[in-house]
Amino acid sequence: MSLDCFFSSIFISATIRRRSKIPGVMITQFVTNIPEGKSTPDFQCKPTPINTQEGHLAVFKAVVKGDPKPEVSWKRTLGSLSNKDKYKTKYEESTGEHILEIHNVSGADADTYKCYAVNEYGKAVCSATLNVTDGEFLTPMRCSVLASTNPADFRKLLRKSKVDKADGENDERFWEAMLNADGRDYEHICSEFGVTDLHLVVKKLEEKKRERAQNKSKVRKLTAFSTHQDDVIPYDDDATLKYNLQKSGRKQDFGSEGLINNMAGLRQGNVSNVDFVIKIQEIKAREREDALFECVLTHPLPKITWLGKGIELEDGEKYKITASDHKLIHRLLIRDCVQLDTGIYSAVAGGTSCSAWLVVEAESNLASGGKKIAHKTTLAVGALADIEKVAREQQMKNREEMEKILAAVKAKHAGGQVKGEMALTTGGGESEITEAAGRGKTARAVKDKPDALYPGVHFISGLSDVNAIISESAELTCRLSSEDCDGVWFRDGKQVSPTDFSVSKDGSVHTLVILRCTEEHSGKYRFEADGRKTEAMVNVKDPPRINLEDLTAFTEPVTVKTGHHAIFKANFVGFKPIKIQWYREGEELLDDASTKIEKSCGHTRLLLSRCHRKDTGEIKLKLKNEHGFTEAVSQLNVLDKPTSPQGPAEVTESSASCIEFRWRPPKDDGGSPVVSYAVERRQVGRNTWKKLGETPGAASYRDTDVEHGRRYCYRVRAATAEGVSEVMETDDMQAGTLAFPGPPAPPKVISAFDDCINLAWTTPSNTGGSRILGYILEKRKKGSNLWTVVNALDEVIKEKKYAVKDVVAGMEYEFRVTAINLSGPGESSNPSEFVFARDPKMRPKFTNKRMKSFMVVRAGNSVRITVNFEASPRPHITWLKDNAPVTKRVTVSNSDGSSQMLIPSSERSDSGIYSVLVKNLVGQETFSTEVRVTDDPKPPGPVELEENVPDTVTVIWEPSPDEKRDDRLHYLVSKLDSTKRTWTTVADRLFNNKFTICNIVHGREYHFRVYAKNDMGVSAPSESSTWGVQKKKGCAPTFIVPLKLHTAPKGYECYMSCAVKGNPAPRITWYRNHISINTNTNYYISNTCGVCSMLILRVRPKDMGEYTITAENSLGRAECTTVLSVRGQQITF
């Protein structure tokens, strides 16, 4: 290369500049060709401009990408960032953000800041401005003027800033028109008003828009504090709200409704105390899916700000921003995600915010042939399953706080009059509220703490604005603090009639339902109750709508063959005019030779003529009017013959008797699966093709009709239900060429011993075009030049491993291996590492897969424990019983890798813990097994029966003689009822000698058996005598457990109980003050097995008195008495 060419290439590579997909980012590419998989730096999220006040903290954030990972640096235009205490840079790994923090901002910091991302292939640059205000903005231009000390420079800047102003620029009508106009109309408006400098006008217009946004936010804060339509609340810089107590001679009633509206307004107007209960989480979605971010606030807000990659998002076709009815849950839905949507999204509520990544992955289903994946919405990973439940809990928590404040108010001002003034404090601001007492009452001032308020009926939740659909129902709901209060509904100041409305009341919840909305139902609705009122707007809209049946038919996929027509149609209704748009794969369709679109007031039809395979994809209909829009999606599948199979063909085997090769399936199967492949062959040097046959779907073919040394060419076609593809022709292939295999990798030593070395290797990467028949293994001693074949030449090694036993202990060897195919042996591999033929040093290790740690043996049988191990050198083995050497009755047998302990005929005394210790020079290993020698247990002793409680039997037995010798012995009790023929188990695994059986029926005979059980089996039963043969003697009723005195608070429940016995069962009667209450539904009375109880759910003063219970049968009567006292009454309001 000449010197001129060299410098020319440097110049070309250095001047490759391009713009990023992110607006405002410039990329400079250092080299002409970037290697595959590498990339220049770029910004995923660039820093945003900041407007702040002096003394505050300014933070710039950026997210970059590139391979290799770029290095990020920050610079400013008119100064340096050398002050490390003021300018701090850091990297947030969780979000991938590079951050520049500017502490204690001053006017001199107003400047343009640039962020650089650099790697070896290029750099990316973007900038953002910092505006600092202290009553006025200090722009970068002004800072440059202030920083300049040269008068000549100052005069130049003044000359640049001069503008020829026209009279129209001072006209308020000019600015009002500019503020409400679209950007395309700016030049036309300026020409009408005689304004010449459009650039300066645009700058001032941005400042006016910013001022208007600030004024709107102030107005929203003030509106939240209003409690009456005619109230005017002034606003000052100290955030102080003042109500004028004397207003034009009128007087107002200051109740708890005003407090709640005010506190709700304070909560919404001053949002400094708002925080996130649940923050937004990272989402990973695929292309064309919807992504949903959700968050829950601590206090309700009607609206929060959503940011996407530093830019504020608005509700529209791409983004859907919603809030729940209680304004605690806020959602951002991103429709039809694409990879450009990847970035950081933020939710801003007042002074707090939270951020999370959205990662959009490319579609992985490339074989779908253009078919769209089923549409779905992706939520955050790890998001809470029931976010509504969390919001309801937070709403209840807020309501409880409000009720505590009201309860404190009621307790403090039970007299009904509040004197003085009241100061409400929310966040950092204070408000003084003064208001008239009401019509005809003397004026009074209120001044007290936030809980000093007048109690009364108030709204727990007021009405909310509703956007209704025409011909559908709409519902307005509010909730009062009292269930006994009724109210009246109004629309535009007139009371509603029941013709078109359904008014209902469920406790404290009042509901108005518009059964079938029309345009006349739009307006302001008001609900009044007990002098309180709440209002909301109902906006009846008529967006485009598609009939459900037509929508179902439209969404069905349409399948046509190539060259045929495809038709899509739909009927719709909605407010006119309706804009109709058709899309195919996101690209709008317009009328042309192959596309015809019919439009009418209620119908549209799309005709796609002579469809091609490339037309396959998503068909979308979009209807839009001034009330909203709707979309319907369908799928078009165009069937065609497949494309040709993909080459080049790969030869998997080439020998004197066959040629086997394979190829790849067609890139596009035409919408139908490949049924078979047709293969043809031509001998090189001839012109005719011979049909060999078809393969059923497998992309490979084995040709066995070949001649040794001949060269052949093949061509393949793919066949589907729609037709046959074009041919794919292979290169020439020769049958029976001498192609030897390549060298395998060097053999690896698996293990080495005194008399054996185990080796393994892998198949060579180059097999020579035919299969590997076997291997030849050679060895060589260290210091020798002679290689010796380990295996015989006529006995090749079939597997890829071998155990070399022809070795001398203590000698050092190396090995190599050669592969053999149909052509013969190939090239030998490189030698392996040298290895000694000697036993390795290995710590003992047990190799049994399942070693029993517990075993039960019947007395007289043999006990056998075997362990397998690996150890080198050979270990010493010791067997122990309960940490003592085993007796001579135990036989121990040891071998190279195992050891066995045997007791030919076991006895009960042989029970214990047996341990084996395997020890050599390297270490030791121990294993223990518990052996229990036992026999069938002996039966328990005599069984006795007792009755301690009516309708029960207690079974008592003597212990089994084996109980002292066997700690695992337990008992089983079974029962035989005279009405049944089978024994049933009533208790098992009893480790005591007594058990009580319930539900014994009089008049029946019972037999009981007791068994002893252990690990070996079950003993013979011990039977009891017959129970229930003799009729039990009767007895008069007596109270085993009497009633107790009770004292219960008013409103709480009271529970009385006692126990009585008698035979026959006595009849129970309860009395209060000598009056029977057995049939009184206010008392819940029960009698279960002699336990008598009575429950009073809510104790009232009239429940006080003397309570008596009587038990009576044919042999006598008994009674028991107690007294119920009611103390303490809860104060009601």
Which fold name fills CATH's third level, the topology of the domain at 39-133?
A: Immunoglobulin-like
What distance lies between the first and last C-alpha atoms, to the nearest angstrom? 100 Å
The CATH superfamily of the domain at 39-133 appears as Immunoglobulins
CATH architecture of the domain at 39-133: Sandwich
Number of strands: 83
Rg computed from alpha carbons, rounded to a whole number of angstroms: 47 Å
Q: State the helicity in percent bands.
A: 10-25%
Instruction: Report the portion of residues in β strands.
Output: 35-45%
The profile of the biggest β sheet is: 7 strands, mixed
Number of helices: 9
- Low-pLDDT runs of 5+ residues are 1-14, 135-167, 218-270, 366-372, 416-454
Structural class: mainly beta
Global geometry: flat
The CATH class assignment of the domain at 39-133 is Mainly Beta
- What is the oligomeric state here? single chain
Overall pLDDT score:
80
Family: Belongs to the protein kinase superfamily. CAMK Ser/Thr protein kinase family.
Subcellular location: Cytoplasm
Domain Fibronectin type-III: 644-740, 743-840, 939-1032
Main location: cytoplasm
